[in-house]
Structure formats: C-alpha cells, structure tokens
Amino acid sequence: MKKQLFTIALGLFLIGGWAMAQTFTIEGKIDGAKTGKAELQFREAGKMVAKYSTGIAEDGTFTLKGKVTEPDMYYLKISDLKGGITLFLDNSNIKIVGKSDDLTNAEVTGSAIHSDLAGYNKITKAQSEAMRPLYASYNEANKAKNAADVKKFETQIDALDADQTKAKMDYIQSILKSPVSSYILNSIAYTIEDPADLEKLVNGFDPSLANYKYVTMLKESLAKMKLTAVGVVAPDFTQNDPDGKPIKLSDFRGQYVLVDFWASWCGPCRAENPNVVLAYNKYKNKKFTVLGVSLDRDKAAWLKGIADDKLTWTHVSDVKYWDNEVAKMYGVRSIPANYLLDKSGKIVGKNLRGDKLEEALAKLVK
Question: What is the dihedral of CA 246, 251, 252, 253, to 10 degrees?
Fold first, then answer.
C-alpha cells in the first residue's frame, strides 16, 4: 500500500494547493463543427502559437492530450469558426461542450482551476452589461455637446467602475490559493494606484505560488510601482524628440511637469488631449509644461497626431509601441497615463484626467 501511495504521489505535483496529474485530456464536442481541426494555442512573445492540435470527427467530437508544466491560459480554436474558447489549462480530465455559432459560451468542466476563471468571467460579463447603457448615454451626450449630461454620466461611470473594481478584488481574495488569482490580478494591476494595496494582495497568495510566473510578474510590477509612487522623485530618463535630439526629464527641474504617456492610435488618448491642451495653455506661463511620451510605432502617425491635436509641448518616443523603454521603466500597461511632478521632480499626482487634472494644477501651480 505504501509503495502504491508513493507511486501516486510521484504522478502529482502541487501548485497553489492544487494537485495536478502528469497529463491533461480534453474531450470536446462542438455541435455544427463537422470537419477541420481543434487547435490549442498559447501566447509566446506576443504571438499565438499552436501547441497541440487534432482532427474533428463528423459528429463534432475531438480529443486532445498533452502535458503542461504549470497551469496557464490557453485558447482553443475550432477550425475556421468565429471566436474560440479560453481555457485555464492544467493537467486534468476536461470536457468541453459547445455550439459552432457560440463558442464563447461553451461549457468547460472537469478542472477546478478553470472553474475559478469561469467565476471571474461571469462577474466581468455582468459588469460589462451594466456599464454598456451608461457608456451609450455618455457617447450620446458627448455627441450632442451636452456638457451637463457628459459630466453626469462620467460621474456615474466612475462610481460604477469603483464598485466593479471592488467586486473583482473581493473575488481575487476569495481564491488566493488558486493560480487563477495571480493571473487575474496581473491583468488588472494597472488599475491599482497605491503600491501598498497591491503589496497586500501579493503577500496574500498561497506560499506554493511564490515562484509562479504571474506572481513573479506582479512582484516586478510592484517594484516599478514603488519607483513611481506619489511622493517619490520620478525616475530620470532620456529619449529622443522627433528631430533626434535627446531629451532628459531632469532637465525640466524647476518646472511643474506632466509626463504624459499617449499614442496617436489610442482613441481614449486623443479624446483626452483637448483637456491637456487646455491645462497647458492655462498654466504654461506659470512654469508648467508637458512632456509627451508616445507609444507610437509609426513616426509619421506620431507627428500627424501631434499636429492634428495641436500638442505644442515637448515630445519624445523611441517608436517601439508597447516596448517603449520609458513606458516599461514606469510600468505603464495602459494609456492614457500620466504623472504630475513638482519643481523638484517629485511625483504629486498620477493618472489625472479632465477636471481632476485642472483641480490638481489649481492647487499646485502658484
């Protein structure tokens, strides 16, 4: 009996309190999928790469077998059908049942780890449905140039967003032993302003997840957050302007500076630019300026965006898209993003948009 138990133990390993077998088996049935193949894809170096594939029988059934070294997010693509099935894959016996015209809502059973992701997806789906009518009303008010209604719907959107963020954080804390918890937190960590809040969550993960890839990524994000927290001197950097001239952040000491991360391809950035222009024009004669850091990948588009939006301050970029070195240094994972610095280079505000930017400048710039 002891020998048998030892043999079983060798075939399992633990991560986050979950026992994982040596291999996985996926048995699927997709009604309406009569030919083609089922392909299990994984993101590597920013691209989706096929890791496993198999043919689909005429009755829409298929079987995939393999092994993962640790639980992670995969994407199941079915022939040339629209969409696919997201799957937090571990070495379990998994069953998938769905319809060819509705792959997104396919039922996945057999994996407790994937069930943790499914619970989160249910929350985000309900949140999106609740937010949709508010955004529609906001867009209509914006189109009609009804400033009062725009303000009203902005306030409602911000309040609902805060409630939804809390619900997500509560869910993460309810599954801290699951690998999915760190995956989810990593995907929304950019919404957390205070490093102490993120640190508390990271420290709450099960000890067995200490070296798990998403926990490691969160620890790296936390380190960057601490370097760019309100109250610390902003990390210095040098990047070239459109003429190839090196521009150094510390050269702006003695001025109030808004370090503004944006890109010409970013719709929300372009929508926010008029607010930044208003702030710049109002305070530029009081030692306030803006340093734009673009995540563009096309120089011509970058320059056109500057000209079209009348952004008459200093701009820099290495034209490397999300690989922009300054963005990586500051841990920027979504744009628009900004950092407001005082004359000594200390960060006094982050992600200030619209009225919040105006309010911060009114207090700071004398």
Answer: 160
8 A C-beta contact, residue 72 and residue 86: no
Do 214 and 302 belong together in one domain? no
Residue 297 lies in a domain: yes
Residue numbers of the domain that contains 144: 114-227
Q: How many CB atoms lie within 10 A of CB 187?
A: 14
> Which of 163, 197, 227 finishes a domain?
227
Q: How far is the CA of 331 from the CAs of 35, 191, 223, 266, 337, in angstroms?
A: 44, 12, 9, 18, 10
- Is residue 101 domain-shared with residue 146, that is, in the same domain? no
- 314 within a domain of the structure (yes/no): yes
**Residue 310 DSSP SS3:** coil
In CATH, what number is assigned to the domain containing residue 82? 2.60.40.10
Residues 6+ apart with CB under 8 A from 154: 138, 354
- Examine the fold and report which residue of 83, 109, 135 is the final residue of a domain before the chain moves on: 109
Are residues 218 and 186 in contact, defined by beta-carbon separation less than 8 angstroms? yes
Pairing between strand 288-294 and 256-262? Answer: parallel
Average pLDDT, stretch 248-275? 95
pLDDT in tens, 267-308: 989 989 999 999 999 999 999 999 999 999 999 999 999 999
Number of domains in the chain: 3
244 sits in the region (left: phi over 0; alpha: psi -120 to 50; else beta) called: left
Question: Measured between alpha carbons, how far is 176 from 362 in angstroms, rounded to an integer?
Answer: 42
Instruction: Return the closest-CA partner of residue 343 out of 272, 283, 271.
Output: 283
Q: Are residues 99 and 164 in the same domain?
A: no
pTM recorded for the entire structure: 0.77
Domain match, 247 and 357 both: yes
The token pair at 336 is 């628009």
Contact between 35 and 105 under an 8 Å Cβ cutoff? The reply is: no
